[in-house]
Amino acid sequence: MSLLLAPWTRLSLLVVLLLAAGVCVVLYEPQRILSEGWPPGLPVGAAVLLFAAAYGVGTAALVPRPLLNLAAGAVFGIPFGLVAAVGGSVIGAGIAFGLGRLLGRDAVRPLLRGRWLQAADDQLARHGFRSMLAVRIFPGLPFAAANYLAAVSRCGWLPFLLATAIGVVPNTAAYVVAGASASSPDSPAFLASFGFITVSAVAAAVVGWRERHRLAPVPACETHAPVPEHPPVVSAAPHGP
Question: Which of 36, 117, 132, 179 qualifies as a cystine partner to 74, CB 3.0-4.6 A?
Answer without folding.
Answer: 179
